[in-house]
Amino acid sequence: MATVHASWRYSTHADVADCLDCHAKPGLGNEILAHLNGARYVWVKITGVREGEVFRAEIDNSSCLRCHPTTELVSLPTEQSARHGLHGDTDVDCDDCHDNLVHRTFRAIVIKPQISTCIECHEREGITVDADKLATVTQQ
Question: What global pTM score does this model have?
């Protein structure tokens, strides 16, 4: 957990969001569930009893959209807004592309999706991709 916390401290979100801002869906009930999930992590650390996944820190799109509303995303420069507009109408989650935004490796600061992420996803989904056009989009 220390590494996770340290990576957040050096991220773009350190001064604007805490753990629950991202890891709890909006609403009191969801915040309580996030605390229970955190308590499970503490329990495993104290007892050493580890069955299944220790920490489930999913991020729901609704958490991202609290600070990054759809209206903001589609008003980005043309290529970026097109990507957000197209992906927002599908079952693509924000962290499918931006998974290394906050808890990244210390060797690389990754804010924009890497072209390899785009190509792998498009191939996995059976979507034809023009790698040259995609390279232009991801470099902007």
Answer: 0.69
